[in-house]
């Protein structure tokens, strides 16, 4: 397929690379040129304006946040210049509100908007094993099938309303953040009573909590190895903010998300915004008076 | 082995039954006589005073809470009447504070105290598949091995300090309660945006959250089937209280546990104390203005 | 003075009325025409476009929120059409972020921006007894003195940075909301132990808490008289949101504000958004299982 | 009157001193002998056992907490040795639960139990200006009138159930702690936006918040003068615990009290337990990344 690809962060690069390997033709754009080079060497055409990549059969976007979508013009001007009927496959995590706005704007411009956010970090993307949650026009979902297959190990189709894919992704990220905070509090409590974090986590992840989220983040937290970040803590605050905003939009109080927000802010105030978001656990330790030490 | 068994609630009965099946001789006591009958029919000797069951090679206790241990005399008078050197295997979830007191009192009375709380509900106990977390004198742990084997699928030995087993169990229960609250908030958020709880849980438990705690409680919450209770919500409040007390003892703030406490209280105030503790999710729904429906 | 006045809600009307009484000439604008009529009868010139009121010696604005300021053009187009050197006296509660943006945009357009938010509800405004917190260019503060005198009983000058007036006002509103929540929780706790809310409040406001905020809101809450609203609960959520945003901008966790946010959302989800914001206390009652009833 | 007085901490000493000045005869007891000396020099009889002070027309107690009342024997043995009909005027802040137990035990022993907790710190007690909240048998309240007059500037009679006085006092202390936390968060927020804590507090305490609690604690917090403590922070945690326990007993969730609990724990974990409880504000500062320094 002919695919435009906008946004070549760690995730975007890995996903674009998978598409090239699967034989698709790519036209790529990124705000800074460096990330495009490796892809260029593998046959991708590098363009210098978003509008030149926002074309083809499908345009995939993987930009940072709501603000980036607006500033690039994806909520407005860019749409009118795209070929009618084109599928815009947005795979980034956006707010429910912007998702609704984008869906309406695309329909008005004669484009097909699909929200298809993903679960998985850089290494998972590189292996083509993302979990994809897609919602949008049925024919568009059908047509994008080969692209999903190249990037993900499983794609969930949620129906025709893109905002539901956004909401599910936001709820899922909130669940991950809650698990991290839970591990942080539980291991600090255990440690203060003489139980090593590893021991608590070994017991729990061997039984009720035998899931990647507890194993992976548990290991990071027990080992206090927050660098390099798989997902930056400052972006975690963004995700919690999306959950709170989605809650506010639907009048859903989210007390755990509120606690998370304050903890993320505290972590950033203490200079940990560029660490892996598992460093949220350090907040629990600090509050308990445990002086951070090297690891 | 010759085993005394005090406390025949749903868990205690199932565990005692496993011991009988494994060929151990049991002397059982329970505050009310009914639960002992079936065990009597299978060869257990039923006694009418705690002191008469608190003897043998090993005495196992599975009473409700700290208060029950005190009122039965396990923090005092009963100890002096037990045979010197006897192992007291307490498998209930007690406070760290009482655990420390019991360990000291038993040592003084010449008894060996082992804290061996368990993870698993009634059906797991009946299948002999509990996860056991044991700490106490090494020779006592060794000697109790065959009993652990009869009741659990895996026993973790944490060393010689019983309070560490209590702390680990308390931290683990806090983690379960946090997972329930997380599911409650996330599914309410998703539902208000048109995503069925089942869908959210299917996606998440197929990937990052593929653990029994999310699958089991997720199914209960999505289906709103809170009866019969696998673990009563009112007991969940007790467990959160233990976590908060352990945190207070060690100066560890636990903001998630604080949120849980308030949510449990709210659930009980609305008459849900006798439902399964997964009904904590109804608090999130109610707060969002969703009127409880059938199920 | 020649004064433009934009925004004639309950507060704006009362403030404009005071200015007329003090002999100033007013040109007034409001989105809907009705509120302007009474002022017209007293000599104010009613105009039909914001730009026609945004002129004179001083233009005072009292619009609803950040969004209203943007949509009317006060963050952009309107500025270029105003007379150079004019003072824009914004007396509404805006975000710190927009305040910074407005200050910069006004400076660029050769206008003088003063943030002068007020404490006091409609009746206080009508009596000319507002507390005004002003920050902006010193000469502008000086020049606006007679206007402040007509509207307030006391004006605090905070210096030249308008964002500090915004921040102080936001912090102050957060304090009021915290006091309301505190009264809600304390009276519910007392009531459940047989102590009437009035009794608790009588004792406390006769000594340590002898302040208007506790007396006024205490009386509303004890009497459960939430109508007509002095300040709508839904606007209270807006104010808490401003506090949270200001906290996020400066990396200041605000756990009380987080609790307030969830409580306001819950109140709105239960249909109380149009009541006085003291109705936040009903959330505490509802959570405790007290069925709302008339009083 | 012939008065026994047990408990000569800072508050107790000041209150006993007032009673001597008013001409009452005192028999005093304290766990450690030093505090009694000055009173002895002024005519009080110093006794060495609690039982010897727990007699006379009225016995006043002002011990530290629930545990102290139990250990001294006031929940049991001491009662039977007191003269029938004696009034026990407990002026300390005890739990609602223990208050109920004491009321029942005294009635059974033929004594009259009055709960009369006080608002006010040491200097207020020394000036005889405490606010007293009393509940108990009507004749006992009447008879104790002259004592109340000697110690307080105002006594509120709540009726015959002592637990209501305890509940009111607990709710009041929760309100004070909430005010302190509110000041801590608000001043930190303001400070991070360039507004001095003093400025925020000047504005607010000149209008809506013109109450001693905001003026006094505001000054301590703005000046960061937490020594000597008027009320120790560690005792503040005790008071919050009493509020949470009273809430739990009556199924009243108290989210603000939960936040307070975690903040107090954090303060104590950082070594501030012996400072004035206004130092709770330092927790808000620390969380925002403001490094504590002298002032």
Question: Could you explain the architecture of this structure?
Answer:
The structure is a homotetramer of 295-residue chains. Chain A folds into 2 domains: 2-160, Rossmann fold; 167-287, Orthogonal Bundle (N-(1-d-carboxylethyl)-l-norvaline Dehydrogenase, domain 2). In chain A, β5, α6 (96-108) and β6 form a beta-alpha-beta unit. In chain A, the strands form 2 sheets. Chain A has a 6-stranded parallel β-sheet with strand order 3-2-1-4-5-6, with helices on both faces. A 3-stranded mixed β-sheet of chain A has the order 7-8-9. Chain A has 295 residues and is α/β, with parallel strands linked by helices. The mean pLDDT of chain A is 96. Chain A is built from 15 helices and 9 strands. Helix content of chain A is 54%, strand content 13%. The radius of gyration of chain A is 20 Å and the shape is globular. The first copy, chain A, has helices at residues 10-21, 34-41, 50-53, 66-72, 77-80, 96-108, 122-126, 138-143, 145-151, 162-192, 197-205, 212-223, 233-250, 255-269, 280-287; strands at 2-6, 25-29, 45-46, 58-61, 87-90, 112-115, 118-119, 130-134, 152-157. The longest helix of chain A is centred in the middle third of the chain and has 31 residues, at 162-192. In chain A, α10 (162-192) packs across α11 (197-205) and α13 (233-250) runs antiparallel to α14 (255-269). Chains A and B meet through α10, α11, α12, α13 and α14 of A and α10, α11, α12, α13 and α14 of B.
């Amino acid at each position: 397929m002919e695919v435009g690809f906008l946004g070549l962060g760690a995730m975007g690069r890995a996903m674009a690379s998978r598409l090239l390997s699967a034989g698709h033709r790519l036209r790529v754009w990124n705000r800074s040129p460096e990330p495009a080079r490796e892809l260029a060497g593998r046959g991708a055409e590098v363009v210098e304006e978003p509008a030149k990549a926002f074309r083809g059969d499908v345009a995939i976007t993987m930009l940072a946040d709501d603000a980036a979508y607006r500033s690039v013009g994806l909520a407005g001007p860019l749409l009118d210049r795209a070929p009618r009927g084109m599928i815009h496959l947005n795979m980034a995590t956006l707010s429910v509100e912007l998702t609704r706005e984008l869906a309406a704007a695309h329909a008005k411009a004669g484009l097909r908007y699909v929200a298809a956010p993903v679960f998985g970090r850089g290494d998972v993307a590189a292996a083509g094993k993302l979990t994809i949650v897609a919602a949008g026009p049925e024919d568009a979902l059908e047509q994008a099938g080969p692209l999903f297959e190249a990037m993900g190990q499983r794609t969930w189709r949620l129906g025709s309303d893109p905002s539901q894919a956004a909401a599910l992704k936001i709820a899922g990220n909130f669940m991950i953040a809650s698990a991290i905070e839970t591990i942080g509090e539980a291991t600090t409590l255990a440690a203060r009573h003489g139980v090593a974090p590893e021991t608590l986590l070994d017991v729990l992840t061997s039984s009720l909590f035998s899931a990647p989220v507890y194993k992976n983040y548990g290991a990071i937290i027990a080992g206090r190895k927050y660098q390099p970040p798989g997902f930056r803590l400052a972006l975690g605050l963004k995700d919690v903010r999306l959950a709170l905003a989605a809650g506010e939009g639907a009048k859903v109080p989210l007390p755990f998300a509120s606690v998370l927000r304050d903890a993320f802010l505290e972590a950033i105030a203490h200079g940990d915004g560029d660490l892996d978001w598992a460093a949220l656990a350090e907040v629990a330790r600090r509050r308990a008076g445990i002086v951070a030490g090297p690891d």
